[in-house]
Amino acid sequence: MATSIGNSSTFDLSPKALIGVGVGLVAAGGASYLLYRHLTRDVMPQKWRRVGTIQRIHFFPVKSCAPMEISKPSVEFDCDVLSMSFEGIRDRTLMVVNDKNEMITARVYPHMTQIRSKKVSASKLLFSYEGLPDLELDFEQLESSGKDVNTSVWGVPVDVMPCGDRINTWFSQAILKKDSGLKLVHYPYPKPVRSTNPRLKHMPFLRQEDSGTFNDATSFMLMNLSSVADLNTRLKNPVDALQFRGNFELKMDVDEPYAEDNWQWLRIGDDAVFRSVAPCTRCILPNINPKTAERDIDGEPLKTLRSYRLFNFSSPALGVHLGLRLPGKVKANDVVYVEDK
After folding, report:
1. Are strands 89-90 and 94-98 parallel, antiparallel or unpaired?
2. Would you state the pLDDT for residue 308?
3. CA nearest 108: which of 283, 239, 275?
4. 174 — phi, psi (to 5°)?
5. For a Cys-Cys bond, which of 50, 213, 259, 324 suits 187, CB 3.0-4.6 Å?
6. Cα distances (Å, whole numbers) of residue 76 to 26, 111, 140, 247
7. pLDDT band at residue 144 under the 50/70/90 scheme
8. Which letter does DSSP use for residue 122 in this model?
9. Model's pTM, two decimal places?
10. Residue 39 has pLDDT above 90, yes or no
11. Among 264, 262, 319, which Cα is nearest to 41's?
12. Nearest to 117, CA basis, from 131, 107, 127, 109
């Protein structure tokens, strides 16, 4: 049936036409909703509520090695989209690779956690390992061949810079007990260039620039010490939160294990604002004691975590990955806020 208006215009009100109009409206509404979600997904909260304070901050110059030794009790760290930095030295901008340019970590070589570092000048780190003379690395005078090293972090490719034969020999001796076989490489870019870790691509709030330097997933990670304490009530031998290698350790004002699972936004101190972008799913690395480099013979704490923190993941979750949304400075004892709904 058709209704005519004038001599030249006709509106088709048949069932087929009405269905078409309905589909069009639904599609338009869906597109509007998707646009709304895109525009509002990173709208920062107007109101915040305090949940605790930062008890410890960990800073890892070399992926899988010990955190840097810092003598100052209340040092400030700069947080930008690439990573956390301390007086020019950045978190996880160094990584060990083998002769095939494959990433090497403490998952296979637990004693990497005993390679220690400290800052000795604006551009220099001093590395130490039992049985070896100390090694000085100057970022401004890396003995590089000038050729890029093509490597990857969990399958995501990245071109990096070698640090030089002298550095390579020392790390080979420390890790392999040989004079060769390993290389130390440096992340040379001023911004994140790696693609998102494939296993996290479904996370709705994750951005490519959250990938950081040589981080497994994102530039920043937070551990709730209440969650670690709850885990420890289930373990025969309690673990140190450092085994989870988070940057920030949060001491809650009110004991709330796993409250971090439900947070979307965090602010640390006055300025630095983070988006909670993904839970941190755990590999075997937390089974390594960071003080002794010994792997737990019972597979703990991963075994216990699998019994109650697996959810729909292939490995259990503890801690949250963060993406920076506003840069700022952070230090121990800073107040931590989350969104106030």
Report:
1. unpaired
2. 97
3. 283
4. -70, -40
5. 213
6. 51, 29, 23, 13
7. low
8. S
9. 0.86
10. no
11. 264
12. 127
